[in-house]
Amino acid sequence: MEFKNMLTKEEFTIIKNHFQLKPENFIEQKNFYFDTPLLNLAAKKSALRIRIKNHSYELTLKQPHPDGLLETNIALNEKEAIAFIHGNRFPTQADEMKEMITTALSVNTSELVCIGVLTTNRSEFPYKDGMIALDHSRYLGVEDYEVEYEVQNKKKGIEHFDALLNHLNIEKKPAKNKIKRFFVEKERQKSKSFGKM
Length: 197
Known about the structure:
Layout: E1 2-7, H1 9-18, E2 27-35, H2 40-43, E3 47-53, E4 56-65, E5 68-76, H3 78-87, H4 95-103, E6 113-127, E7 130-139, E8 142-151, H5 154-167, H6 178-195
Antiparallel strand pairs: 1-8, 2-3, 2-6, 3-4, 4-5, 6-7, 7-8
């Protein structure tokens, strides 16, 4: 179970200082998002990304499923990740994923391009009965901040999370997941550029 809250820059600093976090406590991860220029994958509530974290590379397809969201992950090496990011070349171990995009989602994979990068500096650490993740993300000219609390016990988790926010005088602000925020901003910028024509 995961609880999230958006933060202002000041609230991010309050939490960082409260837990005495230093720059070396944060790890950078980059998510490269792919779609067609018309955002055909996003229109089908799907997403394709490559995540780079700690010198590891992972290609992920997220698509709707009757039980929620189906996530397919494929480990890549650096050469495969670069070939995909810069040339839309699916590695052979992703042939099945490529077929899913083509048939199940009716998206032409040759039209896929990198539509943007979301970079997150994250610090993760144990807190009470769970794990806190403190994030500073940058994408499409936007910066945002959030705190996540992952727990096994929902009731205790919400009590601990609410108590922490209250103790630090942090306003509760619901958080959409990062990929949703990325695509909302992408759509906003797309609409804004069409409005200038």
